[in-house]
Amino acid sequence: MYYSDYSELQNSNPLAIIRIKIIILAFAFLIGLSVATNIRAEFSATLRGTTNYVWRGFTKSANKPAVQANIDYEHATGFFLGTSASTVNFGDRGFSDRSNVEITPYLGWSFSATDDWRVDLQFQRYIYDGKIFNNQSDYNELYAFAHYQDLFTARVSFSPNYYNRDHPAADFGITGRFPLTETVNLSSGIGYSLARDVLEYDYLYWNAGISWHHRYGALDLRYTQSAFFNEKEVPDRDRWLFEPERLGPTIVFTISFGF
Questions:
Q1: What is the pTM of this model?
Q2: Which terminus of the chain has a lower count of CB atoms within 10 Å, N or C?
């Protein structure tokens, strides 16, 4: 996480500073929890840098690099919780109280449905250190994942109040993986987002790429693109200025370190 300079942090909304302190405490809590229960639990952490924070077919970093981190704790019972954080840029630099950091604490439960299928149920909160186009935009989202071995994943998510705009949104996606070697994988995915009432469009997005991982590091090179549908006509007086940029053919490179 970063700010453009120290003075920007000092002049930020006090609520943003409180949120950052909460996330630091959450990271410390997860570390302590893992140490206290390491016999029956798995703890992991990841730090990554990416050339573009692409999320569901649009960029959250204005097509610029982003720094991200994740810390995760999973108990032997299948209960898990964690927190992710990323730098963000929604293209609203003309507003003084803009968001620079996205924090996403989550918790859930993972269980085996059959020998080959695993199900994850997850609750996640998206928290921003400022506003998005001068609007408070924190929101909750519910997820369900179905994994077939390590080869296929289907996902559905639902937010009852997407970006805190008083409208729901849903998203559906599938991802496939094919191992070329023990350390190299091909993968691709496709998704469809029903977000017309909030973002003025529904849209389809897809990606394909190759990943290499070894011990504590990983590299990922990915092609991604999106297409928008069902544009909603909104009077200027009612428009929220955040309108995701149409993502044309885009190459994203990500490097990760973790344990």
A1: 0.84
A2: C
Rounded-to-5 percentages of helix, strand, coil across the chain: 15, 55, 30
User: How many CA atoms lie within 13 Å of 181's alpha carbon, on the beta-carbon side?
Assistant: 7
- Alpha-carbon Rg for the chain in angstroms: 19
Convert the pLDDT of each residue in 206-230 to its tens digit: 999 999 998 899 999 999 999 988 8
Q: Rounded to whole angstroms, how far apart are CA atoms 129 and 158?
A: 23
pLDDT in tens, 62-119: 999 999 999 999 999 999 999 999 999 999 988 889 999 999 999 999 999 999 999 9
- Cβ neighbours of residue 108 under 8 Å, at least 6 residues apart? 79, 80, 81, 120, 121, 122, 123, 143
Conformational region of residue 68, where left means phi above 0, alpha means psi within -120 to 50, and beta covers everything else: beta
In SS3 terms, 94-126 reads as CCCCECCEEEEEEEEEEEECCCCEEEEEEEEEE
Architecture of domain 6-258: Beta Barrel (2.40)
Res. 13: pLDDT tops 60: no
* CB-facing half-sphere around the CA of 146: CA atoms within 13 A: 8
